[in-house]
Design brief:
membrane, acyltransferase, globular, 482 residues, single chain
Length: 482
């Protein structure tokens, strides 16, 4: 089920009403049923895969807690990881690796029939929505139990709810069991203030998605579908707009998820923290898709450095290789991930040199103008690299970048509808200012503690803006494909 659908507008109020109507000891059952209904709404067969992942990790968690022998515990950890990654590989990467293996063998003169490609469309239809998210969530549980950081959850129903909790099931944030699981056991009372805050956050998420992200998507799609027709500034603008589009689209989903969970009394982690107010590339990645980057830090980067003695640079490149691959079965995502890693390392290694140059000129990173110029430069570099993320293949990305740095006599012919162009810029500025002062998690303060008459004016203005300026062009959130 999609957040931005009329189905959800009927589903969510019913889910909340029944949740508060039931006694505490029955609420987990209702939430689990709602979560399964939410997930299987578009494709019921996907529920079998979710059950498989849930049962395997629940069983492995109990066995790891039962045995004290480290070798036995490790066997069940390996079973959990292999099972989860095996399912992820089969449903998401099997076709990609098969097609590439055929090409490699063909290069060495070994001809094989590439039947996988003929069925790729069928496999894409079967690709389970959100599999990358809940797979990482369940694996983190198994690893934490193995490390004895948390006890194994003995209540199968509540563990199943942890895996499938509908607000964050499809596109995150990727929750940790130590944060979310205990919340399903606490008694939640009806709290009007908390519900209001949650609804305001949900409204803000819908605004980001329907009014801003989808509006930017109109221009971004036009640029990428007709990349050969543009040169210079329009393509650079397209790369900028895509960064904002994916940010507003993904943060919209997470904001709606966080708000929906809060309405029912549960706290989900923030997935963004003003990522475009950055001092370095590392600063960007600390603020962007926080739940995923913390996952890679805790379960991949730190073990590589501490246990397997990788250098920090090597471990970082491994992390960003898998960061790219996690996003999709395509070389464009792999190249994007690797380039992000290269940018991060290059930025980090050249900081002393840049500081020395600035010092020689009598300047400093503490100066506002230098901060602004540094942020603009880093944002541009991120935008250039993200061309690979958006492009359908490496060749298209190459054409895009080549044309971006080509001169054009029509450099200022960047938009077919100038009203939409200026409206997009205005909305970006407004949202960035709001996020600067309120962050991604305190937007409700724009309405909170205002006089009642002012709050109702804000509510009415919001409805008017949504009716007049929503762009009904894209059903799915971008991160549904990952």
């Amino acid at each position: 089920m999609l957040f931005n659908s009329f189905d959800f507008l009927f589903f969510f109020p019913i889910a909340v009403f029944v949740f508060y109507f039931l006694k505490h000891k029955y609420r987990w059952i209702w939430l689990l049923l709602c979560s399964y209904f939410f997930y299987m709404y578009l494709e019921p067969m996907l529920l079998l895969l979710l059950w498989t992942s849930t049962l395997i990790d629940y069983f492995c968690g109990l066995k790891m807690e039962k045995y004290s022998d480290q070798k036995i515990r490790k066997r069940f950890l390996i079973l959990s990881i292999v099972a989860n990654l095996g399912l992820l590989f089969f449903f998401k990467y099997f076709i990609f690796f098969t097609e590439n293996a055929v090409e490699v063998l063909s290069f060495f003169g070994i001809q094989m029939e590439a039947t996988a490609g003929e069925h790729s469309d069928y496999v894409k239809i079967l690709l389970p929505i959100g599999i990358s998210f809940y797979t990482f969530q369940t694996m983190s549980y198994s690893i934490d139990v193995y490390r004895k950081e948390i006890p194994a959850e003995r209540h199968l129903g509540k563990y199943a709810l942890f895996v499938s909790f509908f607000p964050q099931l499809v596109a995150g944030p990727i929750e940790r069991s130590k944060r979310l699981l205990p919340q399903f056991s606490k008694v939640i009372h009806f709290d009007t203030n908390r519900i209001k805050k949650g609804l305001i956050m949900m409204a803000w998420g819908f605004f980001l998605k329907l009014v801003l992200a989808d509006r930017l998507g109109v221009y971004v799609d036009d640029i990428h579908y007709n990349v050969a027709d543009y040169k210079g500034l329009p393509l650079l603008l397209g790369s900028y707009f895509f960064i904002f589009q994916i940010y507003y689209d993904f943060s919209a989903y997470c904001t709606i998820a966080i708000g929906a969970a809060q309405v029912m009394g549960y706290d989900l982690m923030q997935n963004f923290n003003r990522p475009f107010y950055l001092n370095s590339i590392a600063d960007f990645w600390r603020k962007w898709h926080i739940s995923l980057m913390k996952w890679f830090r805790d379960y991949l980067y730190i073990p590589l450095v501490r246990k397997y003695k990788f250098s920090k640079v090597s471990a970082m490149m491994v992390v960003f290789f898998f960061n790219g691959l996690w996003h999709g079965a395509s070389w464009t995502f792999v190249v994007w991930g690797v380039l992000c890693g290269v940018l991060l390392i290059a930025d980090n290694k050249t900081i002393p040199i840049r500081r020395k140059i600035l010092s020689t000129l009598g300047l400093s990173y503490k100066m506002k103008i230098i901060k602004v110029l540094n942020g603009a430069m880093l944002f541009t570099l991120i935008g250039i690299v993200t061309v690979f993320f958006r492009s359908p293949n490496i060749g298209q990305a190459g054409i895009y970048l080549n044309n971006m740095f080509s001169r054009s006599s029509t450099a200022f012919n960047v938009y077919h509808d100038w009203f939409e162009f200026y409206l997009s810029l205005f909305l970006i500025v407004v949202v960035q200012i709001i996020h600067f002062y309120k962050g991604n998690d305190r937007v409700y303060e724009l309405v909170w503690n205002r006089p009642r008459w002012m709050r109702w004016i804000i509510y009415l203005l919001f409805i008017v803006v949504m009716v007049l300026f929503s762009v009904n062009r894209q059903n799915n959130f971008i991160y549904f494909q990952f």
